Amino acid sequence: MAPQTSIPLAATVLGTIGTVFWAVQLVPQIYRNYRTKSTEGLPAAMMLLWSVAGVPFGVYAVVQRFNVPLMVQPQCFCVLCGVAWAQCMVYSRKWRVWTATLALGALLLVFAGVQVGLVLAIRPAYAADTSWPVLAIGILAFVVLIAGYLPIPFELLKRRGRVVGIDFVFLAIDWNGAFFSLMALVAQREFDVLFGSLYALCCAIEMGMVVSHLVWMARTRRIRRTAAEAGVAFDECDEGVAWQEKGWDVGAQLRTVFGRGEGERKAEAPVEERGAV
């Protein structure tokens, strides 16, 4: 599609609302991580991929000349996701705070340099009606951002549909950010199919997460009531623990399979060496 030459007022207003939501979307999640000193259930890979996605996302928005709020949006998104990723490294991987801070600072500097370089490289070609570079950047942003959601189904399978570690206020703000951004694209003179699809998918996936948790609550209402009457949390109730243990931990199974294969190779190595002697 051609760059936007004029932006309707409605698109700017809707884009501004979406940007305000996305500028603060991860603040509740970051605060929750800090308050609980835990990021269990919040995939570090998701936060890192989302932060990376901010680079092509920003390039695409700038080159396409979206309204200013939609250009600012990826920058806020990139930084906040980076902060959440650093928290995952500190609370789950036990990195030192200064190590995670330095790593985050270095990443953001690299991201800024790459984004500026790509904008300067792609903008002249796009102005000369060569559209494939910006299309490739848009597809890359789309793929990386959606890839960030891939750990979520595995987390839900492990916990039988329960959403753990992800703040629902964050999900609500994120959903509204995606929705108003989608409406801003609708209000523009030319609709961007790629990013429109991206925003719509974000809305659908996050609604699916909420529905999954509501189903979990319905299925465990008796156990949760029993735990409440006993004055303990669901995870401290024997029946609750037994119910959750029936979840399918795909990651653990893969580690077991590959770990077993590695162990077998190590066990066979001495035999082969003795045969050679």
TrEMBL record:
Pfam family, one: PQ-loop
Keyword Transmembrane: yes
Membrane-crossing segments per the record: 6-24, 45-66, 102-126, 132-152, 164-187, 193-216
One Gene Ontology cellular component: membrane
Membrane topology recorded in Swiss-Prot or TrEMBL: Multi-pass membrane protein
Keyword Nucleotide-binding (UniProt): no
UniProt keyword annotations, A-Z: Membrane, Transmembrane, Transmembrane helix
Subcellular location per the Swiss-Prot or TrEMBL entry: Membrane
Protein name per Swiss-Prot or TrEMBL: PQ loop repeat protein-like protein
Organism for this UniProt entry: Massariosphaeria phaeospora
